[in-house]
Amino acid sequence: MEVLKKSVMFLALVLLLALMLNNGAGALAKNHDVGGDQGWDVSTDFGSWASSTTFRVGDQLVFTYTPGLHTVVELAGEKEYNKCDLSGALKSMSDGKSTVKLSKAGYRYFACGTMGHCQEGMKLKIKTLAANEVSDSNTSSSSPSSTAVTFNHPPHFISYVIFFMIFVVLLVL
Ligand SMILES: [Cu+2]
């Protein structure tokens, strides 16, 4: 009987530890394939893609396109974005697989640098949320863009309480 009691206690302890580690890990960073399956292209609806995706600090944007046909230009701000003004661009990439790290919260603006493409809608405006900030749109995290798994669960206080109670009961026995 003593052996059984000890092994159950050990099991409970292991489970408790696993639970704590899982919660402690928090949200993992995601890679967002810009435009989903269509990628960075003139035909893609970036407005609806962006609005159905939650961007958080630490995530990365991945622009996939044919080099020579498109580029990725980061625009200075909202005004430049609205006017497709590429003159004051912050950064330009043309390697066909451009990665942009979202290192802080706030808005960022991108467009294609190929003549006429921005005017045809090949531009992207995103809002990056802080790591624990709640999304103001009520869209779920069902975006098809994620390549990494996330553990975005709220703290399992009930689970903690249950495990603690099991623990206490076993100690008393
Ligand atoms: Cu283009």
TrEMBL record:
Cross-referenced InterPro entries, in alphabetical order?
Cupredoxin (IPR008972), Phytocyanin-like (IPR039391), Phytocyanin_dom (IPR003245)
Which controlled-vocabulary keywords does the entry list? Glycoprotein, Membrane, Metal-binding, Signal, Transmembrane, Transmembrane helix
Q: Which residues form the signal peptide?
A: 1-29
The residues covered by the Phytocyanin domain are: 30-130
Q: Where in this chain does the entry annotate a coiled-coil region?
A: none
GO MF assignments:
electron transfer activity; metal ion binding
Any Pfam family: Cu_bind_like
Is the keyword Lipid metabolism in the record? Answer: no
Question: Which Gene3D superfamilies does the protein's record reference?
Answer: Cupredoxins - blue copper proteins
**Keyword Transmembrane helix on entry:** yes
Which spans are transmembrane here? 154-172
This entry carries the following GO cellular component terms, namely: plasma membrane
Please identify the protein, giving its name as recorded: Basic blue protein
Q: Which organism is it from?
A: Dioscorea cayennensis subsp. rotundata (White Guinea yam)
